[in-house]
């Protein structure tokens, strides 16, 4: 079996896959990471492991003592897609994995891969297997918090869709500025992607993806485990 470990800014997520790509189990680690990972390894016959670290950790992959492939995802890791990116060493591991996940799910389609979390990342991966690159923008919570924290009087608004396109209160104006503004930004990038590459499938993941997708008028595929599946795809590519 294959183990993927995604270490983010706020949480660590692990998943176990069959060699054929079937997701067996997904875990959000709550306590001591290394102890919880060792419990997973004692439960499942893990042969290969991959780790992607956006956040910090105080243990090494070798501490898990897995005999097969032990891959720390970096810009030097062989990928099932080719990168057209001038600074691959600074490319976020989550962006890299999400692009590989989208291409593995839809190898015959151009994809706009959107991860709507702390930041909203929008990346293009072509059906030819080329990762073109993309954009990074503030996420919904970040937009609302920034307007509250960097001004003297603006309140902190919740993430919601107001009924009106023009806010009839300060709260509604803030919500429209953050939520409607993000939606229009996505639509603008989507239109530019279509103009450049033709038909495009939007593949979305991240905590705010369902919220944004309900207003987005396009062909959309929601995949909460996109980064996890992308990590498996990269691990499988290197293990073969």
| Rg calculated over all Cα atoms | 19 Å
Uncertain spans, ≥5 residues at pLDDT below 50?
Answer: none
Report the CATH superfamily of the largest domain. Answer: ATPase, nucleotide binding domain
CATH fold topology of the largest domain = Nucleotidyltransferase, domain 5
Helix % is 25-40%
- Element-level helix/strand string: EEEHEEEHEEEHHEHEH
Report the β-strand fraction as a percent range.
Answer: 25-35%
Give the biggest beta sheet.
6 strands, mixed
Please tell me about this protein's structure.
With 240 residues, the protein is an alpha/beta fold. It has 2 domains: 1-72, 2-Layer Sandwich (Nucleotidyltransferase, domain 5), CATH 3.30.420; 75-240, Nucleotidyltransferase, domain 5, CATH 3.30.420.40. The protein is 34% helix and 25% strand. The protein contains 6 helices and 11 strands. The strands form 2 sheets. The protein has a 6-stranded mixed beta sheet with strand order 6-9-8-7-10-11, with helices on both faces. The protein has a 5-stranded mixed beta sheet with strand order 3-2-1-4-5, sandwiched between helices. Strand 1 and strand 2 form a beta hairpin. Helix 2 (93-105) crosses helix 6 (226-239) and helix 3 crosses helix 4. The chain is globular.
Short key terms for the protein model shown above:
240 residues, alpha/beta, Nucleotidyltransferase, domain 5, 25% strand
